[in-house]
Amino acid sequence: MPRPAVEIAVQDAPGVRIALAEGADRVELCSALGLGGLTPSAGLLRSAVELAESASRPRFVHVLVRPRGGGFVYAEDELATMLADVRFAREAGAGGVVVGALDDRGALDLPAIERLVAAADGLEVTFHRALDIVADPATAVATLASLGVTRVLTSGGAPRSIDGAAVLAGLVARAAGRVQIMAGGGVRVDDIPALVTAGVDAVHLSARDTVHGAPSGPGGGDTAYDITDPSVVHAAVAAAGLARG
Predict the structure, then answer these.
(1) pLDDT of 2
(2) 7 touches 27 (CB < 8 A)
(3) CA-closest candidate to residue 141, choices 118, 108, 175, 111
(4) Would you tell me how many other CB atoms lie within 10 Å of the CB of residue 114?
(5) Where are the alpha helices (DSSP H) in 121-198?
(6) 3-class DSSP assignment, residue 191
């Protein structure tokens, strides 16, 4: 069997370059990973797509579309922004989008999801970790498959994917190949063999390290910022390959 895909969450063009060089299968392009990830800028998206196309990887960039932190229940004007961002991602040459929306009961917001999938218009669609809030994720996975979602990103409802491995295995069985199950949430390289054993189609990690830049003064915030660690990306790809054998 082929090894599971390795997806790296990145926040900048160097992260895209590293993911390409170290053998990742795709990136989730975003900003503000400290908030769980938000929609990246137009300029970053265009740069990422150009890098992927230069490497002959035209579907490498998948774009997170999330307008704010604070949950996944969106007002109509927020949804309108998300729809516009999905369309822009498609027009800019992204290979997929990463979306999610819930209603105020914590269930799938089916009308919103249908509109987001329609706006993607043939792009791969990943439903993100909003799934981990849903009371019955197995039923939700089946519903998302019927709506045309390509894959779901989930920790199995646990703080870390490794702790939700049994739930992930159940979701794989319920999905029955109709939708891909991607493990994400605190994934470490050492966790990958067990996640592969659970049967997931992909693993998702940020491979982040923190460095310090120049002093930013009283108005510039903390000097620390995230980078993508090439050694972690390389190790994750190797671990996924060895685990599936």
Answers:
(1) 75
(2) yes
(3) 175
(4) 13
(5) 137-146, 165-175, 192-197
(6) helix
